[in-house]
Amino acid sequence: MGIFQKTIAATGWTTLGAAAGYVAWTRKSKIVDVPPTDYLFNHTLYARYNPNNAPVTQDLCVRKVPLDKIRPELLEHEGKLVEAFSAGLWSGLGYAYQRRYLEKKYRADEVTRDHLWDQQDLKSSTYDVGTKITDHFEVVSKTPTSIIVRCGDSPRIQDVRASDGLFEMQAEIKKDEGVAEFGLKSIFYNGLAQPDKEGKPPAAPMSTWIQWLHQQYDKVLMETAITNCTK
């Protein structure tokens, strides 16, 4: 089991178990499939890190919030909403247990001093390209509506990895609908996977159980991230 699956397995149920009224709390967050036509599958990052086009485990968590509930200052300047959304995710309660788990195992001044670890730093960061988060994520793309991190293993490993993936945080203002639409998109793969001797493709990187657990974790991350964007 890769580092990502280990941390999800170790932290997911703890987070869910601590969330009173989980079903009611996350009822507005929806899990949908990432369509095969999604631009990430044609992105240079995907081609670089999954050179053999190995099978993926993917999902997308979406949530809409009325614009009158969003902090006004986040609507005034392009890109501020997705920055606040990302800051809320990494500094929020949903990620707290996983952050402490990774900190205990991997924080070391000599090798990860330039990573974000402390809650205040995670909350104040603007998540520019190159930002490293708790020795497990690195920002690899940023636009006014999207921040993408590479995940699955330490950003200190820059080569193609067995445990790898792209995780996108999206925040788009839709004035015609009167809402802000948020998304957490996950695409995971084994970048080193090869077909077997008979040419059979490798299996997807996550079991059905781990994928389901990740989807529930996504909902928790979504709800705690949004609290940094609302009044």
From TrEMBL:
Name of the protein in question: Uncharacterized protein
Q: Which organism is it from?
A: Zasmidium cellare ATCC 36951
